[in-house]
Amino acid sequence: MDSKLKELMNTVVENDYCIGCGVCAALNGSPLKMSLKEEGRYKPYLADNYQQDEMDVNPLTACPFSNSSKNETEIGKKEFGDINNTHFNEYTGFYLKNYAGYVKEGDFRKQGSSGGMGNWISAQLLENNLVDGIIHVKSSNENSLLFEYQISYNIDDLSSGAKSKYYPIEMSKVIQLVKQNEGRYALIGIPCFIKSIRLLAEQDEIVSERIKYFIGLVCGHLKSDMFAKSIGWELGVEPKDLNSIDFRKKLMDKSANQYGVEVTGNKEGKESTYSSPTKELYTTNWGHGLFKYKACEFCDDVLAETADVTVGDAWLPEYSNDSMGTNVITVRNPEIQKIIEKNIDKIHMEEISAEKVYQSQAGGFRHRREGLAYRLYLKDINKEWRPQKRVEASNKLSTKRKRIYEKRMLLSQESFKAYKAAEKEMDFKVFMNYMDPYIKEYNNMVAPSLATRVTRKFKREINKLFKN
Ligand SMILES: Cc1cc2nc3c(=O)[nH]c(=O)nc-3n(C[C@H](O)[C@H](O)[C@H](O)COP(=O)(O)OP(=O)(O)OC[C@H]3O[C@@H](n4cnc5c(N)ncnc54)[C@H](O)[C@@H]3O)c2cc1C
To answer: What is the pTM of this model?
Structure first.
């Protein structure tokens, strides 16, 4: 095997820091293939009778979690550092402007997870003939998969792939498609996926020429397929019978962050649909981080800093009340900025500060900066291999915060074991019984103290008094 590929397998893959993006398997001459492993996450594996060739692209420098690849700030600086009026913020990366907003025209907002800006920007690129296709995640044509990366060449196809897919995906097949089919493309992806294609593009001329724009999604973490299956299972659809899932069903009488899920599956010989607010389900509290990839615990990019534009949810009190959803948007490429300005009558945009963007994702940033520093520290004292990050290893945080980060890691690790145990007994209750003590302990730990609750109640009462 190519020596660099061997090193990649022995470090990133062996130690479970692989996010399964599939770039290493898409390189010319790569003997790797991607497969969805038992725990419902993609991993590369050595194909049978593989060739012992040297590869023309160094897989170590194209992997987002290796120690030989550039970090997000270095990539961002190269892409956006010299642009007029560009700013830098340690949380958003380089940016021209930040907004909170949504789409007014068509059904983009209705069909989208938040304000519909992700697909609207993609549609603008198609309509203005800036690209021929959008590489994004849509329902899969394969029986065993719910979603996969595909290419949409028109607005109808694009619309059918709206909304967030909290589901394992990989890009090796779609990168091959791009290499085989001349054209100009835009790629939508979570931060580490965009980073990996930026890294690949530095060494692969075809990819560099053809993928013209990158649309990033703000990211908390990626989920194993057990997340979708567990939601269906809790709603009464056995994992093998789950046909589709909508992770972001807007609930019109609720605030935007209290969205629901909807699953369709076969039950008692016929296809039925079930839905529920996520708040009432066992596995959907993102703070618990159930079924999270381990790699996500070692990522410091929340805002897809290497993307031309990033869209996420404006999780801010002033926007969350609107059940239709509002995006937070960070623009880095002047061409995207121009598209927004030219079409300002079709969208609702309020310019916001980088500080506001931070606030909209404050929990995610704390976990991926302060929490990451502590996780790196734990790896270092145990002398274990771990990827190099922009965050320095540190244990300089309160004992309470340390325990919270330790418990979060445990919750995510145990969720995989609990799911396996439930699968064996063919009973979702086994999963809940297994996880209950871990979840209760964690919830008690993060619950606000009596003093905090009393102060909050006091503030609420004072506010009420002044309002009246
Ligand atoms: C794994 C994951 C974690 C996320 N975590 C956060 C978070 O912590 N905070 C936050 O504010 N936002 C997060 N988001 C982003 C958020 O869920 C919305 O996707 C985003 O706000 C865009 O909404 P929209 O209405 O503009 O999207 P739409 O207009 O619906 O467009 C979304 C586009 O993204 C594509 N897409 C969906 N899922 C994927 C995927 N997995 N990979 C590549 N393309 C995809 C769709 O095919 C579609 O083209 C996350 C998204 C994902 C996929």
So the answer is: 0.96
pLDDT of 453 > 80? The answer is no
pLDDT in tens, 61-73: 999 999 999 999 9
- State whether 338 and 423 are in the same domain: no
Residues 278-304: tens digit of each pLDDT: 999 999 999 999 999 999 999 999 999
* CA–centroid distance, residue 350 to ligand 1 (Å): 20
Task: Identify which of 136, 164, 194 to mutate to test ligand 1's pocket (most ligand atoms within 8 A of the CB).
Answer: 164
**Nearest residue CA, atom 21 of ligand 1?**
312
Say if residue 110 is in the same domain as residue 198: yes
Residue in 5, 14, 18, 13 with CA at minimum distance from that of residue 299: 18
Give pairs for 105-112: CB < 8 Å, separation 24+.
Answer: 105/346, 105/347, 107/159, 108/159, 108/162, 109/324, 109/325, 110/250, 110/324, 111/159, 111/162, 111/163, 112/162, 112/163, 112/325
* Nearest ligand 1 atom, CA 312: 21
Same domain for 146 and 72? yes
**396 falls in which pLDDT band (50, 70, 90)?**
very high
- CB-based pocket (< 6 A), ligand 1: 108, 112-119, 136-138, 161-166, 169, 188-190, 217-220, 222, 311-313, 315, 327, 361, 364
Task: Please give the distance, rounded to the nearest whole angstrom, from the Cα atom of residue 114 to the centre of ligand 1.
Answer: 8
Structural domains of the chain, count: 2
From the CA of 247, give the closest atom in ligand 1: 17
Place 139 in a pLDDT band, splitting at 50, 70 and 90.
very high
- Domain span at residue 440 reads 364-462
